[in-house]
Design a protein that fits this description.
By secondary structure, the chain is α+β, with helices and mostly antiparallel strands. About 15% of the residues lie in helices and about 15% in strands. The chain has one helix at about 60-70; strands spanning about 5, 30, 40, 45, 50. The strands form 2 sheets. It has a 3-stranded antiparallel sheet, with no helix packed on it. Strands 1-5 form a two-stranded parallel sheet. The longest helix has 11 residues, at about 60-70.
Length: about 70
């Protein structure tokens, strides 16, 4: 069965209060290394990653992926 990581706060089971905002990037660290591996918190993401905060995908990340894929 297909599965993926969905980053909507309420789907992650995070409290529905003012502490956890809809923009998870303000509350949880994330990194994207030169090999295009994504970590959210300290967890490497191995499933397709569905984000809804448009600011997550930057021109820098896109350029890194294009370079890695040779396109």
């Amino acid at each position: 069965m297909p599965t993926f990581v969905h980053m909507k706060s309420q789907l992650q089971g995070w409290p529905d209060d003012n502490f956890m905002q809809e923009n998870w990037m303000k509350m949880i660290t994330h990194s994207f290394n030169k090999d295009c591996e994504l970590k959210v918190g300290n967890y490497r993401q191995v499933l397709p990653f569905h984000y809804h905060v448009k600011e997550f995908m930057t021109d820098k990340k896109i350029a890194l992926m294009e370079k890695r894929l040779g396109i």
